[in-house]
C-alpha cells in the first residue's frame, strides 16, 4: 500500500464544471488512491441533482460494488425503509459516500469490508466537496463517524450529537447538517436491533422536521 504522501488525491480528476452529471462521468477514471484497482467499479451516487436532502455514508459495500449503485445492500434497504417511515420522500434524497470505491480484504471467496484509512479519505474528499457544492442541499445527513468527520472535521462526535441539527459555515454560507449512525451499525446490534432502529428513526424524523 502506498504511503499517504504518495497518493496524488482525486483533485486532478474532478471536473471544474458540468455539475453532478460531469462528476458521475469522470469518477470512473479517478486514480486518486489505490482503491480503484481491486474494486469492480466506482460507486458514485444515486438521486436527483435537485434533491433536498443529501445522505453521506462511509463507502460502498460488496453489493454496491457489484451493482454500481450506493445503498442497495442490507444496510441500504434498512436506510430506505427508515427514510420512508420518517416521512421523507425517497425522490428527495441524494445518496452518496465519502469513499467511492469498496475497501475490503479477501477471505476465501468473501470480500470483507475494511475501514478506509485517513489517506484514502483525504484522497477522495474532492469528489464529495464538489458534490455538495453543486447540490447545495437544504440539509446534509452524515451516516456514521467517517462521513461526519469527512464533512465536519475530527471534532464531531456522532454518539453525542446524533439527531441534532448543526449549523456550520461553508463556502456557500451557513448550512445545516445532522449526524447519525450508519445503518450497518443497526444490523450489527444483535438483540438491541429494535432499539437501535428506533433511535435511528428518531434521528431521521428530526431531519424531516427540519425540512
Describe this structure in words.
By secondary structure, this protein is an alpha/beta fold. A six-stranded mixed sheet has the order 1-3-2-6-8-7, with helices on both faces. The longest helix has 18 residues. The protein is globular. The N terminus is likely disordered.
Rg, nearest Å: 16 Å
Mean pLDDT: 93
Query: Helix amount, in percent?
Result: 25-40%
Question: Approximately what portion of the residues adopt beta-strand conformation?
Answer: 15-25%
Low-confidence stretches: 1-5
Class derived from helix and strand content: alpha/beta
Instruction: Output the number of helix runs.
Output: 8
- The general outline is globular
- The side-by-side strand order for the widest beta sheet comes to 1-3-2-6-8-7
Query: Span from first to last CA?
Result: 43 Å
- DSSP strand count: 8
How do the SSEs run, as a string of H and E?
HEEHHEEEHEHHEEHH
The largest β sheet comes out as:
6 strands, mixed
